[in-house]
Design goal:
Elements: H1 3-19, E1 29-37, E2 44-58, E3 61-68, E4 74-77, H2 79-82, H3 87-102, H4 105-108, E5 116-119, E6 123-126
Helix pairs in contact: 1-3
């Protein structure tokens, strides 16, 4: 799978999220996590997107709650493209694909662009 096909896979997933169910309330931050499983073989990487809000319960007590889970919140990345990559290399490839998507008009006109977006591997990647 070449870089364009891989980017199209991730862009297609994010486009389907943009076209799917919308958050019922404003979301403070969308998080994208990169996970991998070692069983069953082959090694599988996945991306998961969800939206969180923080709620002040008491003066020193803040709760973070998942307030948005899109219908297709997880994308399994093709093992033939990722199973032989180090975690560092996988983060670089996925990060570049996410940046490419955030440059599109589709992203800029979507509900995703209205909130901060962070990843577990690169920190904040979008802030309005």
């Amino acid at each position: 799978m070449n870089a364009e096909t891989r980017s199209n896979l991730i862009q297609g997933w994010l486009n389907s999220i943009c076209n799917g169910n919308k958050p019922e309330k404003p979301i403070a931050e969308f998080k994208i996590s990169l996970s991998f499983s070692t069983f069953p073989k082959p090694l599988r990487h996945s991306l998961t997107l969800y939206g969180v809000n923080r709620y002040q319960i008491e003066a020193n007590h803040v709760v973070t709650r998942i307030d948005f889970q899109p219908t297709n919140m997880t994308l399994w990345l093709p093992p033939e493209e990722y199973e032989d990559l180090s975690y560092e290399h996988t983060k670089e490839k996925v990060g570049a694909d996410l940046q490419t998507f955030m440059e599109t008009e589709r992203f800029k006109s979507s509900f995703l662009s209205d909130s901060k977006i962070s990843t577990g591997f690169s920190g904040v990647i979008w802030s309005k």
